Amino acid sequence: MIGKVKNLPTGADLKRLAAYLRGTASERVAGSFSMHLSSDDPAEILDLMEAQAGLSRRAKKPILHLSVSYSPTDKVTPAQMQADAERILVELEMREHQAFAVIHEDKKYPHFHLVVNRVDANGRCVSDSNSKLKIEKVLRAIEAERGLQPVPGRLAKAPGRERFSGPKAAQRGYVQPPAAVIEAMQTARSRDELDARLASVGWELEAAPPRPGQKAGGLILRGPRGERSKASACGRNCSGPALARRFSTPAVNRPPKISAAEAVPQPTPKPSGAHALATALRKARAKPKMPRIAPRVSASGAIARVIRLTLPTPKF
Question: Containing H/E element for 60?
Answer without folding.
Answer: none
